[in-house]
Amino acid sequence: MGCRLQKNHKNIFYTALLFFTFLFISCAQTVPELSAVNYSVVFDYVETSDYPSARLCVFIESKTDVRRYDSLKVVTPESDLFWLVENLELFTKNGKEWLGYSNLTLPQEKELSEGAYKAILISADEKEASSDFNLTYNKDLYKIRKNDVAQYFANRNGVLNTAVFDEEHVLLYYGAKKSEWKQEERILLKYPTAKSFREVWILSDNKEICILPEKNIEFEKEVSQ
After folding, report:
1. For position 25, what pLDDT does the model report?
2. Which of 85, 95, 101, 153 is the most exposed place for a label (fewest CB within 10 A)?
């Protein structure tokens, strides 16, 4: 399965989310051609369904300048299934550059396979740098209803974060849910242009992430200091 993917507001959110979660953890898989490969499996819930869809996020640190690469191919364990991405996402932090993509999806009826994947960075002159990485995750998450996510992650020492958006779906805040936000409309005291938010549960190894449905902030309520 090949695909050419375009960025949108949702992809930007996933990219920002991963910037704060899994890119700079110590358990990156080191490889000979590339410095490190990191992945997360994101389970995304919407209001119209009790069960999530899943996407794979893959980012790579190269021993050479990652900017010379302009496409990424990720091959699944089935070998005849792959993603080909041309609009890559780049992070730079603490002198390290990570290149990859945060929205690799499969058809709705398929689940991400566990096992050996291959990540291939391709330059404009078709030179390649590749590495294998082993993907493991809890497939039971496909069967967790959205109302049971909080309990599931709390039982596994998961961390709850909040993403706050404005009307254009620009990310205003991502981080720990503040105690004073028990009343959702109080988010407006800090972010007056906020229109909606999503809760994000993350396990300690940052390999499994669940994003709960987007909720609108109730503007008609009076917000007290």
Report:
1. 47
2. 95
